[in-house]
Amino acid sequence: MDLYNESAVQPLSLVLSLIAALSKGNCHSIADLHRQFNGMCLSEKDSIAYKPFHNQLSKPGFDKFLTELVKYAMVQFTRDNVIRLPQKLACFDDVLLQDGSSFRVHDSLADIFPSRFKKTPAAIECHVTMSLKSLSPKAMTVTADTASERTYLPEVGHMTNKLLLADAGYIDFQYFSQLHTQGGRFIVRGGKSLNPTLTEA
Prior knowledge:
Layout: H1 11-22, H2 30-39, H3 50-57, H4 61-80, E1 94-104, E2 123-131, E3 136-144, E4 162-166, H5 173-182, E5 185-188
Parallel strand pairs: 1-4, 4-5
Antiparallel strand pairs: 1-2, 2-3
Helix pairs in contact: 1-2
């Protein structure tokens, strides 16, 4: 990628330093990333100042660069972990898993990405629909942590002869009714307040 060709920040060394810094669990700023990058340089002459490092991360192509890397990594992972669905699920064209994960972001982003929790002013929610058949994501959306999870359920029109698995955050009876009419099925964990009437077993 030509984004880094004229820079002291080369792709391989940058990616390795990002993985090392973020895997520690105590990385809170670009300064932490910068220290990790310089700490992994083979000699002092290879280290760079904060401003040039920051400039590389703020380039428009940086997010595209990381997106392509993540896609590549996910493909490699799924190639090594392809499994067959159990025979009891063979009647479905696919089994879709739906869930969301919350991540804290910098407090200054609270106006754009408000959090559900008072102790964490700003957070994002990553909503993912994953295929159990192909072990690959079908959809992924990043929103504010306060966004409703149910909004990001798979479109009913695409659920014919598919099974949806989700947790209690996705209880939506209107959606379930439409899903059933469309020929889809679902197994969703019920909340404590759920008081169903069993009509058939």
